[in-house]
Amino acid sequence: DQQVKQNSPSLSVQEGRISILNCDYTNSMFDYFLWYKKYPAEGPTFLISISSIKDKNEDGRFTVFLNKSAKHLSLHIVPSQPGDSAVYFCAASGSGGSNYKLTFGKGTLLTVNP
Amino acid sequence: NAGVTQTPKFRVLKTGQSMTLLCAQDMNHEYMYWYRQDPGMGLRLIHYSVGEGTTAKGEVPDGYNVSRLKKQNFLLGLESAAPSQTSVYFCASRDDMRTGNTIYFGEGSWLTVV
Fold it and tell me: What is the mean pLDDT of each run of 10 residues along chain B (114 residues)?
C-alpha cells in the first residue's frame, strides 16, 4: 500500500525549459513534504520542503507547490540545467506519532538534455 | 565535517554469511534510520531509532537486526544473508522533531549476496 506515489518513472526535458515532477499521497496525516535529489553512487540530498500550512515554497530555481485538497505536490525546476539530471524522491512525514520518519515515493529519473 | 558515514561501502557475501553495516553520525542527532534502495522500489525503511538504546521496525525489517548502543552509531546486522538482501543500503539521521523534518543520508553501502 503505497502512501507516497510518483507515477512517472522518468522525465526528459530540454535545457532551459521547465521540469515538473509530480507526487501524490494518500495519508491525510502527512503534514510535511520534502524533495530529495539523488545522483548515481551517492546518497540522497535534501532539496526543498514544504509544510502543510503553506501552498508554495521557493528556493532559487526550485519551487514546490502543495495542493492539500488533491493530496498532490509538485516540484518545478526553472530553468532546467544538465546538472539537474538525477533521481528525485518525494517524501512525506506525518503528525503525531509518525512524524519521526519519512515515507518515500519510488522516484522519478529526470534527464535534462543540453 | 563528516556528517553521516557508512562502512563498508562495498561488500560481497555468500548466502548464509553474516555481516554488520556500521553507520556513524557526528551531528549529535537523536534519530537514525536504515533504508534500502532497490530498482523500481524507491527507499524503504528497514529499522529506525529515536534515541540511544532504542530501536523500532520499519516497513521491511525481516532478516535484519539493529542496535543503537551509542548515540552516534547505528548498526545494521544481517544474521544469515540471502540473495534478496542484495541492495544499496542508506543510513540517515536527523535532529529531533522540533528542528524540522530534514534527514541527512550517508553515501550508501552496496551489498551483493551470491
Answer: 89 97 94 93 93 93 97 96 97 74 90 97
Interface test with A, best of B33, B103, B104, B107 (most A CBs within 10 A): B103
Measure the CA–CA gap between B95 and B102, rounded to whole angstroms.
8
The one-letter code for the residue type at B57 is: K
A89 chain-B contacts, CB cut-off 8 A = 42-43
Q: Which residues of A touch B105 (CB under 8 A)?
A: 36, 43-45
Q: Are A14 and A111 in contact (CB under 8 A)?
A: no
Cβ of A99 within 8 Å of Cβ of B31? The answer is no
